[in-house]
Protein backbone atom coordinates (compact mmCIF):
# COMPACT_ATOMS: atom_id res chain seq x y z
CA UNK A 1 0.00 0.00 0.00
CA UNK A 2 1.24 3.52 -0.74
CA UNK A 3 2.74 5.91 1.78
CA UNK A 4 1.01 9.31 2.06
CA UNK A 5 2.20 12.80 2.98
CA UNK A 6 -0.73 14.98 4.03
CA UNK A 7 -0.87 18.77 4.29
CA UNK A 8 -3.35 21.38 5.49
CA UNK A 9 -2.65 25.09 5.04
CA UNK A 10 -4.47 28.42 5.17
CA UNK A 11 -4.13 30.49 1.98
CA UNK A 12 -5.23 34.08 1.58
CA UNK A 13 -8.01 34.26 -1.01
CA UNK A 14 -6.20 37.03 -2.88
CA UNK A 15 -3.12 34.77 -3.17
CA UNK A 16 -4.91 31.73 -4.62
CA UNK A 17 -3.49 32.35 -8.10
CA UNK A 18 0.03 32.46 -6.67
CA UNK A 19 -0.65 29.33 -4.62
CA UNK A 20 -2.03 27.53 -7.68
CA UNK A 21 1.10 28.38 -9.66
CA UNK A 22 3.25 27.07 -6.79
CA UNK A 23 1.14 23.90 -6.52
CA UNK A 24 1.45 23.21 -10.24
CA UNK A 25 5.24 23.61 -10.13
CA UNK A 26 5.45 21.49 -6.99
CA UNK A 27 3.33 18.79 -8.62
CA UNK A 28 5.68 18.70 -11.60
CA UNK A 29 8.75 18.49 -9.35
CA UNK A 30 7.34 15.75 -7.08
CA UNK A 31 6.08 13.71 -10.02
CA UNK A 32 9.41 14.06 -11.86
CA UNK A 33 11.19 12.61 -8.84
CA UNK A 34 8.88 9.59 -8.56
CA UNK A 35 5.76 10.46 -6.54
CA UNK A 36 2.77 8.30 -7.50
CA UNK A 37 0.21 11.11 -7.21
CA UNK A 38 -0.07 14.74 -6.14
CA UNK A 39 -3.39 16.37 -5.18
CA UNK A 40 -4.31 19.89 -4.00
CA UNK A 41 -7.93 20.43 -2.91
CA UNK A 42 -9.63 23.74 -2.05
CA UNK A 43 -12.12 23.87 0.83
CA UNK A 44 -15.69 23.68 -0.42
CA UNK A 45 -17.77 22.24 2.43
CA UNK A 46 -15.67 22.92 5.51
CA UNK A 47 -17.33 24.33 8.62
CA UNK A 48 -15.81 25.62 11.83
CA UNK A 49 -16.31 23.03 14.53
CA UNK A 50 -16.93 23.76 18.19
CA UNK A 51 -13.75 21.99 19.28
CA UNK A 52 -11.79 20.91 16.18
CA UNK A 53 -11.99 21.47 12.44
CA UNK A 54 -9.81 22.27 9.46
CA UNK A 55 -10.35 26.05 9.93
CA UNK A 56 -9.49 25.84 13.63
CA UNK A 57 -6.43 23.70 12.96
CA UNK A 58 -4.82 26.37 10.74
CA UNK A 59 -6.17 29.39 12.68
CA UNK A 60 -8.10 30.44 9.58
CA UNK A 61 -8.68 34.18 9.09
CA UNK A 62 -11.74 35.71 7.41
CA UNK A 63 -9.87 36.43 4.18
CA UNK A 64 -8.43 32.91 3.87
CA UNK A 65 -9.46 29.45 2.75
CA UNK A 66 -8.18 25.97 3.61
CA UNK A 67 -6.18 23.85 1.19
CA UNK A 68 -5.91 20.10 1.84
CA UNK A 69 -3.19 18.28 -0.10
CA UNK A 70 -1.63 14.86 -0.31
CA UNK A 71 1.17 13.13 -2.15
CA UNK A 72 1.49 9.37 -2.48
CA UNK A 73 4.61 7.23 -2.77
CA UNK A 74 5.41 3.54 -3.15
CA UNK A 75 6.82 3.39 0.40
CA UNK A 76 8.21 5.44 3.28
CA UNK A 77 11.69 4.82 1.92
CA UNK A 78 10.66 6.10 -1.52
CA UNK A 79 9.05 9.15 0.10
CA UNK A 80 12.20 9.98 2.05
CA UNK A 81 14.38 9.68 -1.08
CA UNK A 82 11.95 11.67 -3.25
CA UNK A 83 11.54 14.46 -0.68
CA UNK A 84 15.33 14.78 -0.38
CA UNK A 85 15.55 15.25 -4.17
CA UNK A 86 12.64 17.71 -4.14
CA UNK A 87 14.23 19.85 -1.42
CA UNK A 88 17.48 19.94 -3.45
CA UNK A 89 15.69 20.70 -6.73
CA UNK A 90 16.44 24.27 -7.91
CA UNK A 91 12.86 24.59 -9.21
CA UNK A 92 11.63 24.59 -5.60
CA UNK A 93 14.21 26.94 -4.05
CA UNK A 94 12.47 30.20 -4.98
CA UNK A 95 9.04 28.84 -4.08
CA UNK A 96 10.11 27.71 -0.63
CA UNK A 97 11.61 31.13 0.10
CA UNK A 98 8.57 33.05 -1.23
CA UNK A 99 5.64 30.78 -0.40
CA UNK A 100 2.19 32.45 -0.73
CA UNK A 101 1.05 31.13 2.66
CA UNK A 102 2.09 31.28 6.31
CA UNK A 103 4.36 28.26 6.79
CA UNK A 104 3.96 28.52 10.56
CA UNK A 105 0.34 27.38 10.13
CA UNK A 106 1.12 24.53 7.72
CA UNK A 107 0.22 21.13 9.16
CA UNK A 108 1.88 18.12 7.57
CA UNK A 109 2.91 14.57 8.24
CA UNK A 110 3.57 11.14 6.78
CA UNK A 111 1.05 8.33 7.04
CA UNK A 112 1.12 4.57 6.54
CA UNK A 113 -1.85 3.40 4.50
CA UNK A 114 -3.89 0.69 6.25
CA UNK A 115 -7.18 0.65 4.31
CA UNK A 116 -7.37 1.27 0.59
CA UNK A 117 -9.71 0.68 -2.31
TrEMBL record:
Q: Which Pfam families match?
A: DUF1428
- Name the source's superkingdom: Bacteria
Against InterPro entries, the record matches this protein to: Dimeric_a/b-barrel, DUF1428
Protein name listed in UniProt: DUF1428 domain-containing protein
Amino acid sequence: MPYVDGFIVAVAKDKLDDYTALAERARDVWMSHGALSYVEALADDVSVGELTSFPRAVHLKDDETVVFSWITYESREARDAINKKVMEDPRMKHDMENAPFDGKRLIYGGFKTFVEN
